Structure formats: C-alpha cells, structure tokens
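#help-structures
NK: newbie question, is this the right format to request a structure? protein is Translation initiation factor eIF2B subunit alpha
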Amino acid sequence: MLHPNDKPSGSKPGIVYSEMGEFDILGHYSRLLEEDPSKSMPIAAIESLCALCDGIEANTIHELLSTIQLGSDSLKEAVPNAISLTAGCDLFTKFITRHSHDDPRDFDTFKRKLQSNGHLFAQRARKARSIVAENGLKMVMNNSVIFVHGYSRCVMAILLNAREKGRKFKVICTETRPSCQGLRTAKELRAAGISVAVIDDNAVTYAMNKASFALVGAEGTLTDASIINVVYINLLSNYAYTRNRLGSNAEFIYLR
C-alpha cells in the first residue's frame, strides 16, 4: 500500500494511487454534484468513498482501510474550502473503522458486509435532510418572519416543506458576500412562491428586529457543539440572542 506522501511522479490531484490500481475519486465526487445539485458535499464525499470501496481489490483489512484513508485525504487535498466535505469523510471513516473490528474469518464476506454498511450509512445520511425538514416544521408558524443567512440545504428543506404544508411566512435573507449564497437562497425560495427580502450583510442588526427568529445551517460542527459557517454568523447569532429572536426552546437554531 502506498503512503499518501509516496505518490507517483506526475500524479494528479484527486486520484487515489495504490498497489491495487488507480481511482479518480475527485472525478466521481464532481459528477455526483453535477448530476444532482441538491446533493450536499458531505453526502457526495460519502458516496464517493463507497464507490472507492466497490472499485478496489483489497485483500486485507489493512489494505481496505488504508485505501479509504487515501481516498479521504485525496478529496480533502483536491477540493477547496473542504470543511463540510471533511465532515462527511471523517464520519464515514469512523463508521467503517468501527465495523472493522468484526471477526474477519472470511475476508470476502467481511468486505461485502463492510461495503454494505458503507452504502447503508450513505442512505441514512441522504434521508437525514427529510427528517430535519419534518422536525423543523413546528418552528415555522403562520405569519412569522424568518431570518436566514447563506445557503443551507437543510434550512431550504424546512422552508420548502413548510410552504408545501400551507404555512404562510416571509423570509429575510442576507446577500452573504463574497459567495453570494444568499442570492441563491432567495432565488429558490421565490421560485417556490415564498416572499423574500434580500438585504446587505451590513444590515443584519437592523433587519433582525423585523424577524421572528433566525434559522441557519452549519458547514461543520466541532466536538464542543460549536459550528463552523460563513462569515457574519457569529455576529448574527449573538445579536439574535440579545434580541430574543429564539426558535422553539433553543437559543439559536443550527442545522447541518
């Protein structure tokens, strides 16, 4: 098994090089996102690692786990701003490693079981957003004004689900520069018939006074339950707390 630092000369980013061959994990990851724009980076990363498991001819547990680690490292190195991607890779790696302690008397059977568990993990991850959308529905009351920042697929799922269930509400959305993620949020919400007011990022404190509560996603979560997200999220959360813009019983609602 090649070490991550022992790549062949002329190697390309996003390619997993091992004694069992090559696998273009970056290409697979990119195709998944192109074919389904609603798919999040962590889910695409997990599915790409599943494809890597299916595509390699590992003969030992060590080879299998090492190749998965190579694939994870290759994605992290090749994709810019890989915070959410890293979360997906790390979750999958921990999941597979945990199951690797099962008794591997028949490696072929063990490998198939491990691959099956990997696909099951990806399937559960895909379903998580719809579960969040249903659980978050209770927060969206009729005639509420919801403040959002950036673009979060989970937040979008909640709002679109609320719209489908007949809830009447309005949304205040920041532009979220320089990425302009907020403009994407506004475009998709308006296409669904939801009233959206887009504001400059500098108007957060003024606009928060008009909102019922703030709802944002998270690029990643840390072990102390803090989150990593786009610029301005710290200011937004602190001001939402001081203005008592709370959702449900939480001080501030974070959704991955």
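mod (FA): yep, format's fine, and the tokens are attached above. The chain has nine helices and nine strands.
NK: thank you!
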